[in-house]
Design a protein that fits this description.
Blueprint: E1 2-3, H1 4-7, E2 10-15, E3 20-26, H2 30-39, H3 44-51, E4 59-63, E5 68-74, H4 94-97, E6 100-101
Antiparallel strand pairs: 1-6, 2-3, 3-5, 4-5
């Protein structure tokens, strides 16, 4: 078993406009990308649980051509709101980093 942090070449978060945060999970090779997708671990239900958002608001978009997965969720507060603790959305990826991906022999 390996964490998403160990498997991804790049794992980052950032604003996707003032209302959403997006996560980029980029892999160094197609085999690792395919392994993570095939594991079935990255689901709207898991992301919903990790970030406290409604499951139906989670978008997970695989981009095979660039060996990447984009995940988008709504922000708890609009970017720049007085209650917002991360105006750029760049410090939100740590819960994703700790997700464990099962070995599937791919």
């Amino acid at each position: 078993m390996a964490s998403l942090f160990e498997l991804a070449k790049i794992l980052r978060s950032k604003n996707a406009g003032p209302l959403f945060v997006t996560f980029d999970v980029i892999f160094a090779d197609h085999a690792t990308y395919a392994r993570v997708l095939a594991s079935g671990v990255l689901t709207p239900a898991l992301i919903s649980q990790l970030y406290g958002v409604a499951e139906e608001t989670v978008r997970i978009i695989p981009y095979e051509t660039v060996q990447a997965i984009k995940i988008t969720i709504p922000r708890q507060y609009v970017s720049g709101d007085i209650r917002d603790q991360d105006i750029y959305g760049c410090q939100q990826h740590l819960p994703l980093a700790q997700i464990n991906i099962e070995e599937l022999g791919l």
